[in-house]
Design a protein that fits this description.
about 0% helix; 2 strands; mainly beta; flat; about 50 residues; two-stranded antiparallel ribbon
Length: about 50
């Protein structure tokens, strides 16, 4: 979920040095409050599903 606010600092969600994972957006939901829910799945290389 994405909440439309700006923050200057805070606790990191992921550690430094974790390999980057390419993601594909599969669903998006918008709410009147401004909250957006984005659903992703990993992109699997070498298959027809990432065309």
């Amino acid at each position: 979920m994405i909440h439309p606010i700006v923050i200057g600092n805070g606790k990191r969600l992921f550690k430094e040095g974790i390999p980057r994972q390419e993601l594909k957006l599969i669903e998006l939901q918008r709410f009147d409050t401004g909250v957006v829910v984005l659903t992703y799945e990993p992109v699997r290389r070498g298959t027809n599903s990432d065309l």
